[in-house]
Each structure stands twice: as C-alpha cells, then as structure tokens.
Amino acid sequence: MLSRVNSWRVNTSDFETIKVLATGAVGTVCLVRAKADSKVYAMKTLKKIDLLTRQEAGFFMEERNALVFAQNSQWITTLHAAFQDEDNLYLIMEYVSGGSLRNFMNSQESALNEDDVKFYVAEMVLALDELHKNNIIHRDVKPENSLIDSSGHIKLADFGSCIKLSDSNAKICSGDTVGTPEYVCPEILQANEGKYSYSREADWWSLGIITYELLFDDTPFYSDSLMGLYHNIIGHEQNFVFPEEREVSPECRDFLSKLIVSGDKRLGRNSTAEIKAHPWFKGINWDTIRTQTPPFVPELNGPDDTRYFEDEEDESKNARGPSRMPVRSGHMAP
C-alpha cells in the first residue's frame, strides 16, 4: 500500500473502518485497514462544513505539511497519504498502537514516579526539538497528543494547531487562540491584545504543565470555569504552587519553575540545549534513549490491537485527571 499511495488516487473506499480511536471538535480519528494489503493506519477525518473559516482550513494544510516533513522521524507520527472528497478532508497516518500518554495516566492508580516522568519528558523534549529545528511550533502539546508506540516510546501527534515560522528568529503575533485551555501558555492567551508575541517557548510551557500533571496528578492552574482557568494562567506568578502532599527532587522543582514562567525567562527560549543541560536530566543519555527500555511496554496481540485506546462510548474511563474543557475560541479545541 505505502509504495502505491503516490501512484493512484486514494479514497475512502480503499479502507475499512475497524474502530473509532478519538473524536474532536471538527473530526474523528479511526483505525482503518487498507483493502490492498491489509495493513492498518489511523485515518483522521475532518468535515469541511465544520472548518468554519479559511483560517481553520489553513490549519489542516499546516498539519499536513508538518507531517510531510516528518516522513522519516522516529519521534513524530508518519503521514502516508492525504486526500479529500466533497464533504471531508482525510489524513492517512501511522497507527501508534500503545495509546496516548493520557490513556496510560488514566490506567495508573496514582501519579508516576519521578524517574518514569523524566523518561517521558526527555523523549518529548527530543520530539519537540525535531519540530523546532524545522521552524514548526506545535501549540497543542498535551498528554492526548503524546502517543506511545509498540515499543513503549513517545511519538508526537496531532498537528492541527501547528504553525511554521518564516525563519528561526521569527515571532508569532497572531491573536488566534489555539491549543487546549489547561496547557496553553499566557503569551498565546494575551496575543490578541496586540502586546505579546511568542515562538518555540510556547511549547516548553506546555511541556512544563504536562510534567507537573504527571508528577502531581493534576494541572497547576485548574479551575471550574474557563475564565477562572485563564485568570490563573495569566496570573501564574502568584498562582503557581507545588502541592504539599508529594515530595519531588529540588532539581525537578527547579526545572518546573523555569518552564512555568513568563516567556522572556522560560528555559528553552534560546535553544533546546538549555533544557537538555538542566540538572534534572543528569544521567539521561540523549543519544541512546530510544534504545532504552521504557517504563511501560504495551502488550499487543497484533498491529490492529486497540486495547490501549479508551472506548469512546465509555465516558466512565475518563474520570481520572483534569476535565477537558470542550471550548472553541479561535482554534482552541480539546
């Protein structure tokens, strides 16, 4: 199938749907099997009628382009084909069978230990670095978009909010609110005021929020209301605290304090090397981490095994962790 995707016009009749893996604000992701060779893929379907503006259609193009650049990446999901019909846009992508980091978190009885958190965060650093080297900002880094492959390693997914910078020094001045509320940085929230701009450091804030959540089983600025959440994020200097119930190393606290901070002070604003050099990562071999045994290795019965993806109809499995706010402002979506 893969060798042929460029030699014929791919369409939905070439695939059979096995299971719905995820649903979002403007589309779904399904596990599908190619009829030509029985290989399985993840097919993302976006309804054109739900892409309300040309700008949102542009996000689809940015996602496709980001995936095209990552064809041979070990850290980013592979795109195999992109096509459309009268009603929908489609992306045929690599199926990453270990589920998402969110699914893994939900399966645990308590928060992860610090060494396991460090492993996953280190792999996410490398995934984001690969994007950033190509002048792409993800802008929606969260556990749901961090997938676990069949060997237990991280692959970054869902580039529907990403944007490509014009050059390595460029800044984004757009007032579009993108991302997911709990993980979005204050610069993005305030960009629509015309006083703020941002670049790659926006993704490092999100990584800090994920690190905090993996350690403490909650996000740091949680609120029952969206406005309360935004207020807490914008006022992060006063509102960011560490829970008293759990001790983490001084190096870990320092790492978090240097990510969950204003963009002009944030670790990684100059280069990923700043993050990799932080004392919390002492002992991490950045060159060989992909060959190391992860904290969790999926037990799979075959390439189409979906046991690590929650049943979309069983909402009771989503009880653990902060609630995902189904808000849509600009391109903000769960």
From TrEMBL:
EC number from the UniProt entry: 2.7.11.1
UniProt domain Protein kinase: residue ranges: 15-281
Molecular functions per Gene Ontology: ATP binding; protein serine/threonine kinase activity
Annotated GO CC locations: cytoplasm; cytoskeleton
UniProt entry tagged with the keyword Chaperone: no
An example Gene Ontology biological process: actomyosin structure organization
Top EC category: transferase
Domain spans labelled AGC-kinase C-terminal: 282-334
UniProt superkingdom: Eukaryota
One Pfam family this sequence matches: Pkinase
Region (Disordered): 294-334
Sorted UniProt keywords: ATP-binding, Kinase, Nucleotide-binding, Phosphoprotein, Serine/threonine-protein kinase, Transferase
Catalytic activity: L-threonyl-[protein] + ATP = O-phospho-L-threonyl-[protein] + ADP + H(+); L-seryl-[protein] + ATP = O-phospho-L-seryl-[protein] + ADP + H(+)
Record PANTHER family: CITRON RHO-INTERACTING KINASE, MYOTONIC DYSTROPHY S/T KINASE-RELATED
Family: Belongs to the protein kinase superfamily. STE Ser/Thr protein kinase family. COT1 subfamily.
Protein known as: non-specific serine/threonine protein kinase
Organism of this sequence: Caulochytrium protostelioides
